[in-house]
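Collaborator request, handled under Task 6.
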Amino acid sequence: MCGQSMNNYNYPDEKIIVTKEAEEKKDNIPVELPWRWCLVGNIVKSHEYGESKDVLIGTKHFQPGTKVYVAPANWGDGYERIVVIGCPRRSRQYIEIVMKSDYVVNFRLQKVYQPFLLKMMEESEYTWWNNSEEDQQAILSLIGALESDRLSKSFNERLDNWKRRYADILDFDELDNKWQHCPSDPESSEVAGERIT
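Structure tokens returned to the collaborator:
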């Protein structure tokens, strides 16, 4: 230990832990944009997985409720798979992954100021949002589309479940035929007395 400072000595079983703040100071690389608009959401509490419909908590990489930053569409799959940045289950180091958009809920618009996130977005191989008004409007319209899509999926799933539950009681083909032949104004029709309630 002669001539060696106590601060520079590494014990064999010592783990060096580097915090995000230390990484930011070490890199100190200027980022082009001081902030960016971003679509932000949270990981679902639980979801069904596989043919047996097992219920899983969160996702493989993220705990339920984890805040994730969502990139714009990078390919033409109807936003079914998305690029996200978030803090994973077993690490404090943020990661960027591609995942199903069904696993993210509570979409909202937010400004991102954190230098380490801006740096990740800048260095990403995927396209990320900017701080322009066009991107702000694009995110707002995307939020509306995602919410309406989610509502229609939810309605269709409930309708399918209802049909499966009552399939042995009701003849759905007969009901569908009656509904197709129903006029839009039942009061003006001869078959108003046969209305399905």
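The cover message to the collaborator said: "The mean pLDDT is 76. DSSP finds four helices and seven strands in the chain. Please let us know whether this matches your experimental observations."
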